[in-house]
Structure formats: structure tokens, C-alpha cells
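seq:
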Amino acid sequence: MKFNFHLETEIDRPLEAVIRLFANREHLPKWQPGLVSSEFMESKPYLKYRLRFELGRRKMSMMETITRNELPRHFDGYYEMKGMRTEVQNSFASVGLNRTQWTSDVEYRFKGIMALIAPFMKENFRKQSIILMKNFKGFCEHYKS
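struct:
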């Protein structure tokens, strides 16, 4: 079971500033809801991190694998947790002097019990992806260096 989303947003900041904020892992908790840690795990063949989240009383962790980091054109990777794998391809482009377009192509894949539940939750996964984009957009536009 899988489904895909194509998402875009424009950020009112120059490309260089957006990339600087996106690439800085210390900023992740400021725009990713519930993220409490990002722990480096390994670097070969790809960078891997364990992400830990606390959402209310629910705790979860997932593995992030960065497969291509050629910002601003490419920041690709996948996120895995039990029953689910999310592949993401991000790109950033200047669309004016002080505006940046962020494009994200997301593919969710499910197995096991999640494959049975996922069709009923498709819109929730899409909304979560949109929330992350809106959070990052807001973080960039209000960040004071």
C-alpha cells in the first residue's frame, strides 16, 4: 500500500537564508512538532539519524536516512518506523529577490497492520506534511539572526 503527494509553498526569505536554516539540524525542533532529539547514527553509505518524538503522552522514534544532500536543488531521504516508510524529495529555488519556493514530493509506503489502516488515514498523512511545510515557512519568515 502506498500513496504520493506533491506539495509546494513559497517562503518570504531569500534562498540562501532558507537553505542556511533548513540545513542546520539544531533548528529542527523549532519547526517539527514534538521532536525532542536527533541523534547521529552513521555516515556510510548515507547519513542516518534517530529522531525521537513526544506528542502528548505518545513517544515514538524513527530513522532518518539522507540519500542526497545537494542543497538547494536536492535534499532527499527516507524515514522509517514500524510498518511505514516515507520517501521525500525536497528542492528549493529562488522565485524573486527575497522569495524561495520549496517543493516536496512525498511517498508513503505501508506494510503489515499499517497497510490496512493507511487508506483511512491518507488525508491525515497529507495534512501532517502540510503542517511541517507551514511550520518551516513560518520559522523562516520570523527567524531573527
